[in-house]
Amino acid sequence: MEHSIFLPTLSHWEYGNEWSGERGLARFLIVPEEGQLNAELWRGPLCRALSQAERSARFPISQEGLEALERWLLEETEALNRENPEKAP
Question: CA-CA distance, 73 to 43, in Å (whole number)?
């Protein structure tokens, strides 16, 4: 599995844009709100509206917050995919 996740630059979040993606079976949605990045993870293949978040966290909208968010996403998606490895790509 890859050891990085692409995340947009700081200006993307400062303008209030959302971001979603996937890594293996894990799906994620990041929504900026009140100076924070709200991240949710769930097991695919369904979209967020048809799933229940299994993990969530908040990070400040800053360069340090983006770095912490990327580390969290890598760790949590890896853990989620390990829980059901026979179905992970």
Answer: 13
